[in-house]
Amino acid sequence: MDPALIQTALTLTAALLIGGSAAGAGWYAFAQGRRGSQLKARLAPDAASPTVGGKPKGQTLAPVVGWVRRLGDAQAVRDPNQVSSLRFKLIQAGFPNREAVPIFLGAKLAAMAGAALILVLVVPFSIRQAGGQGPALAAGLLSLVAIMGPERVLAMRRKKRQSEYRDGFPDMLDLLVASVEAGLSLDAAVSRVAEELDRRYPNLSEHMILLTRELRAGRSRKEAWAALADRLGIDEARGLATMLRKSEELGTSLGETLAVYADDMRSKRMLRAEEKALALPAKLTLPLILFIFPCLIGVLMLPAGLRLSEALGAQ
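The structure assignment produced for this chain is given below.
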């Protein structure tokens, strides 16, 4: 083996490792900075709204949003059956506004129309040009992203928020139990817990605040908790709503019922943590095979190969 080739391979490997480390460090710094800015914005709710070109951001994007919303309204009128289910999905993903459904449908339709236009423009050019499969393939991938992208983004946001709800639900129940056992009513305890959860679980806190407003507006406790379970979209909230309804119908102690349910939620959270810990070795197998083992083989075998090539060259 040529020593120059081995040296080039080592140099390229080192460059790739250094570049990957730099990219990972940059991404980590960006994520931490973004998280810090979000925390500062959350702790300072009265801060001025962002501006673009001297105008508020909402006013700058208002014409585009209005056009997309009108496009989505036409789509919703043609297919009204999907509006109800889509509205629940958007609420669970963090878009409770009534205009979220037409905006989502309009954005999805606009993305598909844009991808179709790109395909119409690119495919004839690719056919005329020899070896023009690259632009056609890129246009096809763009069309696939336009078709599946909005649904995928919505599903990812729902999954992320539901994960936060599941993590914060046992803490919320513990705070409810402590508040009820301290002498507060359930409605007052909900209002107090919503304030305590604001910094650790802000999304869950928003739903608790909305629950408090519904109860103050005169909505029955059974309907308000059932609506909360629908907005969260997790089994734990549905179980809590059912448990509170049964407790109210049977006249059992609310504090003891909440304490039993909170203990069950803590046990489930511990089981989920143990499940993730047990699944970690299986998940690490592929990264070890793809990234760690090649590096170890290179570190162990390249020096021996270099010495062997030098010895054979000397003979």
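Interim note for the steering committee: The first strand starts at residue 51 and ends at 52. The chain has eleven helices and two strands.
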